[in-house]
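Input.
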Amino acid sequence: MNVLDLLIPAAQAQAAGAAPAQGGGLSMLIFPVVLIAVMYFVMIRPQMKRQKEHKSLLDKLSRGDEIITSGGIAGTVAEIGDNFVTVEIADGVKVRVQKAAVGNVLPKGTLKSAV
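Output.
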């Protein structure tokens, strides 16, 4: 017996040519379907729900509402356009932001109590 035979096991070439076991075709098909279903309910569906709620919030937006933008600017809605909202952040100071940047609508009087 050679020392190399102890360190390196002999290759089993005859086992490499064997045909793979048959069966399991249905289980191989079910796994991706289950994986896609789980991803839909865990990731896609909640995101679509958040988008729908945000669109509803933007549609209900009216003049005088107190809002916070996604950038953290708090103010009162002065004007509403198709794509932009003018927000009054202090007396006489107005900023135009995209409608999509409106993050949250605050209850009335929140800004006055925060100062």
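The chain has four helices and five strands.
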